[in-house]
Model the fold of this input.
Amino acid sequence: MARKTGSHSEITGPRVRSAAEQLFARHGYASVSMRRIAAEVGVQAGALYLYTKDKQALLFDMMDAHMVALLEAWQDIDPAGAPMQRLEALVRFHIRFHMERQDAVFIAYMELRNLTPDNYAAITERRKAYEQVFEGIVSDGLAAGDFAVEDAHLSAMAVIAMLTGVNTWYREGGRLSLERVEEIYWDMVRKSLLG
Done:
């Protein structure tokens, strides 16, 4: 397969990542070869190595970029104020951010097992940083007397799991709008922390 006219890193690099993300999400990392990614992009398999060291590096870069974007996006909108208001903002943010990136979210959760030990440790550290955002808000709410839960860490992990689950069942055009789902989920989270 000949190199496509105009193919260069600013165009082909993002296309490689996009094709890999779609293929990993649909078929699983282990089932997708570099040759298959190259065919999807329309380049020779050897050309992929101009854009990534190997398939493992591609998976890691994809997962790391997702976690960095998540943390940075939250920092950009994190409201100052009471724990209850911050938690509501975080719940709504989490649902919206993840619904807009369903393939990346699926890969971030399902493909951890395919990372090398060093890559796994690095992604786990990013995940912990995000989990600590939830835990910090819950801890602040406990200290302020807003929440009444036994364990801030366990509560934070339960909330994250519940919110991330929206990706597995929500479909646009269904019975509930995403805005209504946000309202219902926020109400459930709030009530679960009031004790």
Observations:
- The chain has nine helices and no strands.
